C-alpha cells in the first residue's frame, strides 16, 4: 500500500520568532565510532527576549532560498517561488474581513500565545468552519506548553514568554487549543493539570514561510540584490498565505511606531564587524491584509496590516501597518487546525514521545530513523507526523512483527512518500489504515532528505527552559543502510533524545450486543451483555 503525494508547504515548529540568532552548528568530518561521515548537527538556540518573546535561532539557513548561489558560491539569480497562490493572482491590496475581535494581553507576556490562537481561529473562519463569536484561549495554550505530562517548558507560563515553537509543541500533543469561553484569564487562573480542558480542535499542519530578512554571518554575507530577492519572495508568500488561510503570525520590534502613518519601519543593524543583522524582534502579532501603495518611512511603499493584542485603544482600533521592508519582521507562520471545533476529531489516539518538539536536526547522518510504539488496545493506524526540511523528499513506512523491538527487522505493511516545499512538521495519511493488536509493538520509519542529504529531527537536550527525557527502546537511527542503533547510544553531538515522529490512530470499533441461549424448555432468553470486537 504505497501512497505518493506532495505536501503543500505543510510545516511547523521549524522557525519561530527568529531574530538574527546565528545557527549553532557542529560539523564533523571523517569516521566516528559508528562509521558516520560528514555529519552536521544544527541545534535550536533560544534566548529570552522582550515583551513575551523567546527568540529562536538555529535553522534560518534551511528556510532561505538555497538556489541563490551555486556550488561555486556564485550568485545565479532568484530562486523559483514556492507560491501558495500565484502572485499574479493577488490584488494590490487586500483585507481579510473574517477575523477575531481585538483582544488585550494586558500585563502578561503572552503575545506569542495570542498570535498563535488568533491565527488558528482566523483560519477556521476563513474556510467557513468556525465563526468569530469565540476564540481560542492563549492562557490555556501557555499553561499546556509549560505543564505537559512529560517533556515540557519550565519558565513562568504567564510572565516567562514563549514562541511559536512552544505553542506548536503543545498543540501537536493535543494539549489545546480550547475555546476561550471555557478558559478565560483571570477567571480561570490559576490553572491546574487536572483542570485542563480537552482540545476543541487538533492542530494538523502549519506553514513556516521564508524569512524576509537574512542576517550576515562570519562565513556568509548577503548582497543588496540578494536581500531584495529574498524579501520579494517572502512578501509574496506572506500575501499568498493571508489570502488563502486568513492570517499569518509574525514577530517584529514593537518600538518606534510612526503615529503619522500608524506604521512601523526598522532598518538593518550593523555590528562592530560590519555584519548587517536583522533588528531584534520583541513582540508577536497577526497579519491579516496588505496594501502595496501604503506609505511608511521606508524608501518604497507597501505594508502589511497588523492585528495587535494591545486592545482597541492601540493604533486604529487595534490595528497598525508594518512595512514590507521592516528589518525586524521575522518568523512568518501559519497554524492550520481541523475544520471544526466541536470536539469531533479525525484521529483520537496519538503515539508520540516528543513533548517539546524538535530541538536538533541531523543532516548527513545515516539513513532512516524511527520510533517504536506499543499499542494498549486494538488500533487502526491511519497517519503519521514528522518534521521535514525545505525542498524535501520523504518515504515513511509502518512495520509490524519486529524482532526484539528493533526497526528494520519487521514486515512493512504500509508506506507513503512525497515531497515538501518548506521546512517543518507534516502529517501524512496511509492509503488504508493499519490494524494493530492490543499489546503489539510496531515501528514508524521515516527516510527524509533535501538535495540528496538525509535529515533527521530529534528533541535534543534539556536546557534552562525545557525538560526533555527519553528511554532506551523508543527511538532509533539507521547507521549503515540496514542496522538500527538506539538513539540513546548516539552521544557524539550531544543528546539526541527521542525522534520527532508521531502516529495517529482510532481505536477499533466495538459493538455492544446482547446475545441469548436456549433454556432447557427450548425457549430463548437473554443471557448476558458483553463487548464483542468487530
TrEMBL record:
Keyword Thylakoid: no
Biological process according to GO: proteolysis
SUPFAM superfamilies: Cysteine proteinases
CDD domains in the cross-refs: Peptidase_C1 (cd02619)
Peptidase C1A papain C-terminal domain segment(s): 90-333
Superkingdom, taxonomy of origin: Bacteria
Molecular function GO labels: cysteine-type peptidase activity
Keyword tags: Hydrolase, Protease
PANTHER family, per the entry: CYSTEINE PROTEASE FAMILY C1-RELATED
Recorded family membership: Belongs to the peptidase C1 family.
This protein's name: Cysteine protease
Amino acid at each position: 500500500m504505497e501512497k505518493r503525494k506532495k505536501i503543500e508547504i505543510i510545516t511547523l515548529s521549524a522557525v519561530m520568532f527568529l531574530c538574527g540568532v546565528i545557527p549553532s552548528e557542529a560539523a564533523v568530518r571523517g569516521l566516528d565510532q559508528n562509521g558516520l561521515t560528514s555529519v552536521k548537527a544544527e541545534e535550536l538556540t533560544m534566548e529570552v527576549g522582550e515583551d513575551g518573546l523567546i527568540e529562536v535561532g538555529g535553522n534560518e539557513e534551511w528556510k532561505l532560498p538555497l538556489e541563490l548561489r551555486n556550488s561555486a558560491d556564485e550568485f545565479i539569480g532568484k530562486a523559483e517561488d514556492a507560491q501558495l497562490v500565484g502572485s499574479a493572482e493577488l490584488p494590490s491590496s487586500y483585507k481579510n474581513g473574517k477575523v477575531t475581535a481585538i483582544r488585550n494581553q494586558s500585563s502578561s507576556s503572552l503575545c506569542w500565545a495570542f498570535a498563535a490562537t488568533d491565527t488558528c481561529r482566523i483560519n477556521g473562519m476563513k474556510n467557513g468552519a468556525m465563526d468569530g463569536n469565540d476564540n481560542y484561549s492563549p492562557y490555556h495554550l501557555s499553561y499546556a506548553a509549560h505543564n505537559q505530562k512529560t517533556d515540557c517548558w519550565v519558565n513562568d507560563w504567564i510572565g516567562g514568554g514563549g514562541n511559536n515553537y512552544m505553542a506548536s509543541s503543545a498543540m501537536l500533543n493535543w494539549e489545546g487549543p480550547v475555546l476561550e469561553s471555557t478558559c478565560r484569564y483571570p477567571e480561570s487562573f490559576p490553572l491546574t493539570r487536572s483542570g485542563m480542558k480537552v482540545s476543541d480542535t487538533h492542530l494538523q499542519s502549519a506553514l513556516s514561510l521564508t524569512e524576509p530578512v537574512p542576517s550576515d554571518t562570519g562565513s556568509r554575507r548577503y548582497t543588496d540584490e540578494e536581500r531584495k530577492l529574498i524579501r520579494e519572495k517572502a512578501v509574496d508568500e506572506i500575501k499568498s498565505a493571508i489570502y488563502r488561510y486568513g492570517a499569518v503570525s509574525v514577530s517584529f520590534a514593537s518600538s518606534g511606531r510612526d503615529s503619522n502613518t500608524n506604521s512601523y519601519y526598522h532598518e538593518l543593524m550593523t555590528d562592530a564587524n560590519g555584519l548587517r543583522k536583522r533588528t531584534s524582534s520583541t513582540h508577536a502579532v497577526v497579519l491579516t491584509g496588505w496594501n502595496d501603495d501604503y506609505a511608511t518611512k521606508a524608501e518604497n511603499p507597501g505594508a502589511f496590516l497588523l492585528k495587535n493584542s494591545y486592545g482597541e485603544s492601540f493604533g486604529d482600533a487595534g490595528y497598525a501597518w508594518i512595512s514590507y521592508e521592516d528589518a525586524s519582521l521575522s518568523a512568518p507562520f501559519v497554524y492550520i487546525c481541523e475544520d471544526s471545533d466541536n470536539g469531533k476529531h479525525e484521529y483520537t489516539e496519538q503515539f508520540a514521545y516528543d513533548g517539546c518538539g524538535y530541538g536538533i536536526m541531523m543532516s548527513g547522518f545515516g539513513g532512516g530513523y524511527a520510533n517504536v510504539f506499543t499499542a494498549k488496545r486494538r488500533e487502526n493506524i491511519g497517519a503519521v507526523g514528522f518534521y521535514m526540511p525545505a525542498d524535501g523528499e520523504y518515504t515513511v513506512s509502518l512495520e509490524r512483527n519486529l524482532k526484539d523491538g528493533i526497526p528494520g527487522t519487521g514486515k512493512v505493511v504500509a508506506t507513503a512518500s512525497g515531497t515538501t516545499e518548506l521546512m517543518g512538521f507534516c502529517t501524512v495519511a496511509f492509503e488504508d489504515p493499519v490494524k494493530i493488536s492490543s499489546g503489539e509493538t510496531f515501528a514508524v520509519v521515516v527516510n527524509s532528505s533535501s538535495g540528496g542529504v538525509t535529515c533527521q529531527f530529534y528533541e535534543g537536550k534539556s536546557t534552562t527552559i525545557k525538560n526533555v527525557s527519553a528511554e532506551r527502546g523508543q527511538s532509533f537511527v539507521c547507521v549503515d543502510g540496514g542496522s538500527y542503533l538506539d538513539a540513546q547510544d548516539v552521544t557524539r553531538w550531544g543528546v539526541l533524545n527521542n525522534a520527532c515522529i508521531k502516529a495517529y490512530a482510532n481505536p477499533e470499533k466495538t459493538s455492544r450486543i446482547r446475545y441469548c441461549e436456549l433454556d432447557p424448555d427450548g425457549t430463548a432468553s437473554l443471557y448476558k451483555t458483553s463487548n464483542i470486537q468487530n
